[in-house]
Design a protein that fits this description.
Low-confidence stretches: 132-153, 155-160, 544-556, 564-573, 576-594, 846-865
Mean pLDDT: 79
Pfam families: ANAPC4 (PF12896), ANAPC4_WD40 (PF12894)
Number of strands: 34
Largest sheet: 6 strands, mixed
Distance between the termini: 67 Å
Radius of gyration: 35 Å
Strand content: 25-35%
Shape: elongated
Keywords: Cell cycle, Cell division, Mitosis, Ubl conjugation pathway
Protein name: Anaphase-promoting complex subunit 4
Number of helices: 18
Structural class: alpha+beta
Length: 865
Amino acid sequence: MPTPSSTFEILGERKLVSPAQRQLAAWCPTKDLIAYGLVDQTVALYRMNGQKVWQTQKYTTGQRQAKKEHSVTQLCWRPDGQLLAVSYDNFITRIVDVQTGRFGHQVEMEDVTEGRITAIGWVDNRDPATEDAEQLEPKTKTDFINIGGTLKDDNLGYLFGLFNFDVSTVLPKLSVLPGVANADITFSSKQSLDSLINVPSIRKEDTMDVLLMGTSKGSFAMNVFDSFVVGSMDLSSLIGENDRYSYKITHHQSTRSLKTHLLLTTSQLRPKYRPGKEKGQGPTVLHALDILFLSNYGPYLGRVTYTITKVQHLLRYVNETVVAMAAEWKAMEAVETAYMRAQKEILEAPEGQTAGLEFFELLITGCAGEKMKEWLVDSLGEKGHKKWEKVYVNGYETLRRLAHEHLLPSCDRLIVLLSKLRGLARWTDKDSSLGLDPVDYSKLLDLVSGLMAICHEFMGRVNYELDLFSAFIFWLKTAYEEFNSLTEGNEPGAQNEGELLVDTLKVAEFIGKHLQNSILAAYFDKTEWVWREGETVFAAFTKVVDTDGEATGSSGGDAVKNIISGSGSGLKKRESSGSFTGAIGSQGSEEGPKALPGFHQISTRINEVSKSIFSKPANAMKQQVHVGQSIVVHNEPYRILDIRLCDDGGASGESVWYIAMAKSELDELGKKVPASESTIVMIRIAIVKNGTLSSVNDVSCTRINAPPHKVVSDLRFTDNQTLLVLFYDEDNTDMMSIRCTTPHMAYTPVPKSWWELPASPTAKLTDQNGIFQFAMTLAGNYVYNIKRVLTFNHNDITPIALTVNVNRGRRLGSVLDRERLRWIIFDLGVVAEEEKEEEEEREQDESTEDDEFYSEEFKTPAENP
């Protein structure tokens, strides 16, 4: 075996709080952090020094007996390292904020009922090599215009800056929502609020990221900007005629342009093609997935999907604000209900009757029966009176604050973003292939405007009812003090001059219309509201029923004025619903509060309409997802492998991919099966674009024999030239980095008949199918071109899994021990020489361009023609 040039630098050994799952670890692409999926079905984030940053809670659904705990299946970081995607066995992928470890939102695969998520990839089309250059000062007049600069001659730069100006960036920031018991509030932390809404993302117009989730049944879902759902698709349906196999997606990769994705799958033979007891295993197949909508729509698509994503975040903020308001109102009602229930029991009032008459008797005559006195002095008492006052006054103020500081500002932002979407829809034809229609966004704008108007009405009602309640609670306190003094044998004290007087009219109004029958309850009613065709919020709140029973109403500005001023007939319905006779909302007439939509019904309607509208561009995008050629990698399912994009194509349009596969016989504990040998097969695949679809331009492979008496337990690519391999034997495990791509190794072309997937579903695969099978006919090369090696003695540690971070500026790796509690961090070393040369060439080219620019820009007048 050749002598390696150096070894790996060990940076430390760490311990986990709980055993980890073997292949469930992921390094953060931008920070020295690693996430582990643990066997207790939580996810823990660690720093390099072994410090645990956070650990998620277990994910459960259902209540009590129906409560179910879900297992973690996949982990994947967003390319900027700010969010972590965690997939579960119920087709839910939850997005974790790296700052807090809290789940921000979740992505659910639609129309998928079988299997589990077995692959997840999160990619974007940013070029890390040019990120620093984008921060430099502009070098040309064109650059100056593009960033919003001002040219003295025609002010074109100023106009261009206005064109790209985002109004939402200067709106006041939204406030953090209060926590709510038994509710998952995303925006209860500043970090989540800033990352999803408050802090605008710095992105170019053509920058996009795609989150792809694949399942064990061959379906996959795509999301753009992690929230815009393109939808779920079935791989077998996209392939076409050959439905012989059902696929399990195991790996995902993409070109930097995001236009070509590779899905690596294992497969099973469908029952109808499996006569008798024939073996049901199918081949390992690589599928080229073409995403045509990225090239067809360009920056326009990025603007639409990015804006829709922001709208979806704001809609969730609105929903959670409504949940917080409803929870606050429920807490207020609980206190009042408890005291009034005690009063009914003491008064022995019939079921369904309230105590309005007793309160009016006390208010008008100043006298009360013995049972009323008992409730007021002994049951309610001073402590109960103070609690009632505190809960209600604080509750009214909280409701007013949630409406004024949370709901209205979020609606303001929604108006801005929806107006932008309507403008983008008007930019194209009504029947454009992306499915945008200005009328749709006008409907959403009407709904949001209606929600704002109702919010203003609600705040007015809160202020009014708070004023009435203050008068009522002051009167109740006065009555309590008087009766309590008489009970103790003291004469009630004379009222001092200047003391507040009881406002009898306000007290009477509160008792008659608001006590146990508050008009605010109608705003939190969750009864399903049936919206008529074309009915708007303004029509629902201002309609008048004429003599023929037909609903008529005002619209536009008059409707808004009626809602806010309280002159609309709908508002009169609210006011007429309650009286001191004891008719509460649920027992009132059809004209009561439940005959009008509240916050829940309106927000639900907005969500339904927005989902329908946003599904149109999503469906248009789904129609532009196609599968190019499929490549048979192995004629059976395969487990130990890795895939890497080594050349993005550039001007040539040819992307080069490498797949590393290891034939090893290991048991469930990762131990070598006696008398087994190991082989590594390297596959090189060149894919080109023919028009809009991808096609295979070249397939070649080489075979590498493992060192004697060793088998491969895991392998990972670390750069475009190097493969990191764990070679296992009984006593030691050698970790080697090997140069294995061209030109360091010779590759043999693979005939098309070996790798092409038959078009006919009845065609059977044989030993003459599969790139791996072809490689096994070649003479094997022994391991050479070794860069580094590190030997682990099994008396100390037995590594069974590799995790590497090979992103720009991050050259770290880790191995997990067989016990799955210990992990060792090591430095992968410097970037490969070829990559360093490319970096130097790029810097040289940039330097040459700068010299040309400055030599041209700073010529003297005499030198310029």
